[in-house]
UniProtKB/TrEMBL annotation:
This is L-gulonate 3-dehydrogenase. The keyword Zinc does not apply. Coiled coil: none annotated. Its main location: cytoplasm. It is an enzyme of class 1 (oxidoreductase). It comes from Pinctada imbricata (Atlantic pearl-oyster).
Length: 240
């Protein structure tokens, strides 16, 4: 829906024709609901966006003329290896192939492939239609120009990409998220706060602030522009 809203022709592929039928029905209904509720993205109507999406149970047919492929299979390393091997056998030298993986690095399923330089992770955050962040994570062999192109595509379709310079377990969002969850769980286990109050700290405090400015900008503004003072305070807190 995101790519169709930006005017791209999109083809969905699945090995199960039944899933394609469900997807087609769901797409029409969802876009109509978004249009009625004022949430529809893009400058065209829901009906016009629906016409840009086609469906195919043939991977070869699906990839014809494709410039960008977004894989969305379950988080299973063997399945991703199988899918990317199939993509590799049908890809052109210009085709970019990205995985939606939320934790598996591209190097774990693209190493032996011919077109591996055109492969990376482009991790959207659920629900991507309303949460725009996309993490771009290259494998060691991903071409820099591929990253640049994917970032440009994501910006054109209205997403908000961030580019990691190298692979890192947990990528970026989950590294921050897991650190926060671990600290919240620690405060609950030690009896410092109730579960309800821990959640309140986030939705009535940090969440509201971080929706507008991030933690580094917060520290900068909260320390008279002296970022190193805030950093020092964190180091002191860690040692006490």
């Amino acid at each position: 829906m995101i790519f169709a809203a930006a005017g791209y022709n999109v083809t969905l592929f699945d090995v199960d024709p039944g899933q394609l039928s469900k997807a087609e029905s769901s797409l029409k209904t969802t876009l109509q609901q978004y249009e009625e509720g004022g949430y529809l993205r893009g400058n065209t109507t829901a009906a016009e966006q629906v016409k840009l999406v086609s469906y195919s149970s043939s991977l070869e047919e699906c990839l014809q003329g494709a410039i960008y492929v977004q894989e969305c299979v379950p988080e299973n390393i063997d399945l991703k290896k199988k899918v990317f091997c199939q993509l590799d056998s049908l890809a052109t030298d210009q085709m970019i192939m990205a995985s939606s993986s939320s934790c598996l690095p591209a190097s774990s399923f693209t190493e032996s492939l011919k077109h591996r330089e055109n492969m990376l992770v482009a991790h959207p955050i659920n629900p991507p239609y309303f949460v725009p962040l996309v993490e771009l994570i290259p494998a060691p062999w991903t071409k820099p120009e591929v990253l640049t192109t994917v970032r440009s595509i994501m910006e054109k379709v209205g997403q908000s990409p961030v580019t990691l310079r190298r692979e890192s377990l947990g990528f970026a969002l989950n590294r921050i998220q897991y650190a926060a969850i671990n600290e919240c769980w620690n405060m609950y286990q030690t009896g410092l706060l109730s579960a309800e109050d821990i959640d309140k700290v986030c939705y009535d405090g940090l969440g509201m602030r971080y929706a507008f400015i991030g933690p580094l900008e917060t520290m900068h503004l909260n320390a008279d522009g002296e970022f190193h003072e805030a950093s020092s305070a964190i180091e002191i807190a860690r040692t006490t």
